[in-house]
Amino acid sequence: MTRTQENAPPPPSEDFDRTRRSLLTRLKNWDDHAGWREFMDRYGRFIFSRALHAGLSREEAEDVVQDTLVSVAKKIPDFRYLGEKGSFKAWLVMIVKSRIIDMLRKKARRLPDSGAVRADENTGTSAAGRIEQREDELSHENLWQQEWEQHLLEQASCRVRDRVAPKHFLAFRMCTQQGKSPAEVARALGLSLPMVYLIRHRVGRQVAQEIKLLTQGP
Question: Which residues make Cβ contacts (< 8 Å) with residue 198, sequence separation at least 6?
């Protein structure tokens, strides 16, 4: 286990399955702009990041976010929560996967010789083959879970950042994300070693509390 893993606040045991029913109800109203803004604030960056990791450009990833938004708006009236099999997580991830795959296939059609004629000079894999590999990678649930937990950590950290002293937040970041030891952080920032330990504990606790709040609904 790395020092970063040891010092980081614990990831949530559940992701966005604990969906707030009130927001789901609001999303069924296309005119509820505040509800849709909340949805985009909570999920937009996650969808965008997942699309980038699938091999899409920033412009294509932005299109995936918009296409997902349209799909959710169209399908949300028929969504029914049925436990794990009918969870909001599984439902939304299915939509995002479909939109990413659609964009990957469009991308393949735009590539020259995308019909497996031209191969990558380094790997020997055709353009169509690379798209198929990307589609296969999208089926691995653990990748989605890791991405979501990282997204939650970033959201929670941003919320806490504005509530603590800049130097304290930097100390927390250096300990938990940059893999620096408390002694290294103390020397770099001119803090005492006990203070670094205290900061790491206090800020980490606030981040964990924010993660808990974020997992209570979309």
Answer: none
